[in-house]
Amino acid sequence: MNEKTLSFADLLLLCVVLIWGTNYTVGKIALREFDPTSFAALRTILAAPFLFLALGLKERGVHLTKKDIPPFVLLGLFGNVLNRFAWSYGLHFTTASNASLLMSTAPILAALFASLFRIERVTLKSALGIGVAFLGVFFVIKGDFSDLGLGKTTLMGDFLMLGAALSWALFSIFAKPFLRDYSILKLTAWSAQFGAVFLVPFILGPLAQGAFAHPTLKGWLCLLYISILGNAVAHVFWVTGISKIGPTRTTMYQTFVPVVAIFFAVMFLGESLLGVQIVGVVLVIGGVYVTRFA
To answer: 66, 117, 198, 227: which is deepest, by most CB within 10 A?
Structure first.
């Protein structure tokens, strides 16, 4: 198929961009009714069985070898515990626009740490992309140069979201060796199962106290949207994209997630960006693009 022709896989990936882009606005709404700890735990626990169902439908063998269980537990910790907590608390304390942009630096951080761990070599073009992206991150976090300090009200959330990007980058690096023996879907599904096991204790207290009776139908629908569509369905679409049109063309779509996220945050949350932050948006997206396709 001509690479310039949109295929069914491309349409699925456009759905992924829409789902992941709206996750931030939907997450902000859900966090008005759920505390960040419960939200982080519930979204993974609810998504885990759907990922495993998708794995069972798409692949014959769903089992892990015994020797791979410990590293998959580690993957669950980085990708589904640390990442979920940092993402939920980060989104709670910053804007949806900032959160989406800072989370988009995960591939930049992955490239940087892959170089430090001597897993991959960073080319001059990649290094340029990393530098440009991090300059953009500084502009996004700083926002206003009339005050030279970093005393923004969103500062803690911004750094927590960078922590979420870092944990996802480390997950990606640690996961790479296992992709020789396991599909992306199997790796995602099993790491989610182990992550869910670690997160169950975090909902027992609120469950016993009846805390989950307080959120409204809208709050639960927002949580289910992120859990089922954002964590499960979008990942299946993403894996389908990789299998049909290849990883390079597929990963290109993720570059547009913060654009969608910022649009919805402005439209539905009333957020706005300062001029310096708009420059940061361009630098982050440009840096990510250059690094990925160097």
So the answer is: 227
